[in-house]
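Exercise 7b. C-alpha cells:
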C-alpha cells in the first residue's frame, strides 16, 4: 500500500479476438495493475469520560481525521468545530482506529448533556438506505431529530409532526448560471488523481457558489459516502469553513438518501450528481429545501428540487428561474 491510496497488483489480462469464429484463441498477458486500497477504520468518541465505538467503516486510507469528523457531523453528533477537543490517530491500532475527544467544557457551543444525548440517540436511530426497509416518513423524522434539538435556535421549517423543527438551508447570493452547474462534473473528474490510476474510486467535491465556482476541496474513496464525509470533515476542520452554507456538493455517482442527509447536516444548499437520485433522496431534498440536481452532463441536467438556486436564460431572452421538477438543456 502507498500513501496515495493505491497499490500495485499482478493480474492476468485476457484479450479476446474481435470475431469469435473458432480460428483464434484468447490471449493471456501478465501485467501489473493498480488497485484502490480498501481497509477498515474504527471511529471512537469520548465524551463525559466514556469511550464509545460509533462505527467501523471500510474506506480508502487517507484523510481519516476528516472522515471521522464528517461522519459525526452527518449523524448529527457534531454541530460545530468547537465541540472537538482532540482527534488522535495514535491509538493501539494505528491506521485502523481513530479517536475523537469531544469538548464538554464550560463555554462549548452545546452543553454536555445535549452532546451526550446526541451520542445516545445516534446509537439507536436507523436511517433508510437502498438496502433497508425503513419507510420514508420514519427516515425523514429520524434526520429531523438528528440535526436539530427541539426548540433549538437553528430551528426553521416545521417537519409536520408538531414537535421537531428542521433547519433552513440558506439561499445563494445569486442564482447559479446553468452552464456553470453543467460543467461541475467535468471539473470534479479532472481533479480525481487516484481514479486516474485505478478507475476504482468515487469522488466528492465542494465548490464555492461565488463567481466562477472555485473548487474548495475534493476527496476520493472506495465508498461514495466516505468521500462526502471527507469533504464535509475538511470544512469542519478548516478555520472559517463551517457551516458550508455557500458550498455546492458534487458527487461522481448517484444521489442517495444518505448523501442528501449528509449535505443537509453540513448546511450545504445544493447537491449535484452525475447519476440519478432515489425517490427518497428527492423527497428529503424537497423537505429540507435542498437543491438536488441529477444526470448532470455538459448538455444539461435534471432539477428535482430547489430550482430557485439555478438561473437560465430562456430562448426569448431574460433571466428566469426553474421550479421543480424540470429538465434543463444547456446550449
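Sequence design result:
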Amino acid at each position: 500500500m502507498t500513501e496515495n491510496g493505491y497499490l500495485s497488483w499482478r493480474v492476468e489480462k485476457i484479450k479476446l479476438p474481435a470475431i469469435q469464429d473458432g480460428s483464434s484463441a484468447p490471449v493471456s498477458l501478465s501485467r501489473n495493475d493498480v488497485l484502490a486500497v480498501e481497509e477498515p477504520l474504527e471511529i471512537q468518541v469520548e465524551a463525559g469520560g466514556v469511550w464509545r465505538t460509533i462505527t467501523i467503516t471500510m474506506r480508502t486510507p487517507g484523510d481519516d481525521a476528516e472522515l471521522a469528523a464528517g461522519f459525526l457531523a452527518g449523524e448529527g453528533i457534531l454541530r460545530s468545530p468547537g465541540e472537538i477537543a482532540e482527534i488522535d490517530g495514535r491509538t493501539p491500532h494505528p491506521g485502523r482506529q481513530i479517536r475523537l475527544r469531544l469538548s464538554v467544557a464550560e463555554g462549548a457551543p452545546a452543553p454536555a448533556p445535549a452532546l451526550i444525548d446526541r451520542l445516545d440517540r445516534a446509537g439507536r436511530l436507523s436511517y433508510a438506505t437502498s438496502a433497508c426497509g425503513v419507510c420514508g416518513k420514519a427516515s425523514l423524522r429520524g434526520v429531523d431529530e438528528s440535526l436539530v434539538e427541539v426548540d433549538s435556535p437553528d430551528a426553521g421549517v416545521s417537519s409536520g409532526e408538531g414537535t421537531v423543527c428542521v433547519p433552513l438551508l440558506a439561499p445563494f447570493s445569486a442564482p447559479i448560471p446553468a452552464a456553470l452547474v453543467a460543467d461541475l462534473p467535468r471539473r470534479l473528474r479532472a481533479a480525481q488523481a487516484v481514479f486516474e490510476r485505478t478507475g476504482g474510486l468515487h469522488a466528492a467535491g465542494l465548490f464555492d457558489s461565488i463567481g466562477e465556482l472555485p473548487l474548495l476541496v475534493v476527496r476520493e474513496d472506495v465508498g461514495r459516502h466516505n468521500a462526502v464525509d471527507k469533504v464535509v470533515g475538511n470544512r469542519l476542520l478548516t478555520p472559517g469553513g463551517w457551516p458550508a452554507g455557500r458550498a455546492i456538493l458534487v458527487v461522481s455517482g448517484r444521489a442517495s438518501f444518505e448523501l442528501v442527509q449528509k449535505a443537509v447536516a453540513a448546511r450545504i444548499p445544493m447537491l449535484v450528481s452525475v447519476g440519478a437520485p432515489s425517490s427518497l433522496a428527492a423527497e428529503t431534498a424537497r423537505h429540507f429545501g435542498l437543491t438536488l440536481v441529477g444526470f448532470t452532463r455538459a448538455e444539461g441536467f435534471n432539477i428535482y428540487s430547489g430550482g430557485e438556486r439555478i438561473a437560465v436564460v430562456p430562448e426569448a431572452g431574460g433571466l428566469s428561474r426553474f421550479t421543480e421538477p424540470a429538465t434543463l438543456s444547456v446550449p
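Instructor comment: Residues 127-168 form one domain. Confidence is low (pLDDT under 50) at residues 124-138, 149-155, 157-165, 317-324.
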